UniProtKB/TrEMBL annotation:
Region ranges (Disordered): 52-80
Bias type Basic and acidic residues, positions: 62-80
PANTHER family to which the protein is assigned, alphabetical: DNA PRIMASE
Protein name (Swiss-Prot/TrEMBL): DNA primase DnaG DnaB-binding domain-containing protein
Native organism: bioreactor metagenome
Length: 218
């Protein structure tokens, strides 16, 4: 961080993320952030507390209803693939074993977003060095949408008891959703009135093959 403004902005963004964690996790990350930025623990804790208080404040009823209506219009539900990717991210952040297995299976195949993929690669690299990933530092370098996805993934509070099974299940869900998307795209192409009978037959055979692959993932 080259100047005071960058240092402050980094600290604020990191505190915003840390505020979403459990008390034990917050304390550990505040200590890391203090060492990196030079701000005292008391200052960082106060910043985090102010963020949590702001999040807890409820707007007036009319404002709240308008906000909810706007959110329903603007925010589309996550696809099955996004939900599966987020679950895999969560397990990777909780377990070095899960991160290693996911890395061995190929992160480029598991995460469609380049930003999320780079975040996952950084997790694997940190564990390989024998380190705990510095999540606030990693998040500060991400695009807002990708950082929000990581934060959403952290809201899952289920413990990663069986990392190998958890990763396999997530990867299976990701593969199934990818196949389902391909099938849907081909079905839409079948509606093209200019297709010949031979082309339609090829598309139908492809759909059957993809369906067989999906059944094999069950």
């Amino acid at each position: 961080m080259d100047n005071e403004n960058e240092r402050e902005q980094y600290a604020v963004e990191a505190c915003r993320f840390i505020a979403t964690l459990t008390p034990v996790e917050r304390e550990r990350h505040y200590q890391e952030l203090s060492r990196k930025t030079g701000f005292s623990l008391e200052t960082l804790r106060a910043q985090g507390a102010s963020i949590r208080r702001t999040d807890w404040q409820q707007p007036a009823k009319g404002v709240r209803e308008r906000t909810f209506r706007a959110e329903r219009r603007e925010k589309q539900p996550d696809s099955e693939r996004i939900r599966a990717e987020n679950a895999l991210l969560y397990h990777m952040m909780q377990s070095p074993v899960a991160a290693r297995i996911a890395g061995e299976r190929g992160l480029d195949q598991q995460f469609a977003s380049e930003g999320i993929r780079q975040f996952a690669e950084a997790l694997v690299a940190a564990y390989q060095r024998g380190e705990e990933p510095n999540l606030p530092l990693l998040l500060c370098g991400m695009q807002k949408a990708d950082a929000e996805r990581v934060s959403d993934a952290l809201k899952d509070d289920a413990p990663c008891v069986e990392p190998e099974k958890a990763v396999r299940d997530c990867i299976c869900r990701i593969e199934r959703s990818g196949l389902a998307e391909q099938i849907e795209q081909i079905k839409q192409q079948l509606n093209d009135p200019t297709l010949s009978e031979a082309q339609k037959a090829d598309y139908i055979r492809t759909i059957m093959t993809l369906n067989q692959r999906m059944r094999g993932l069950s």
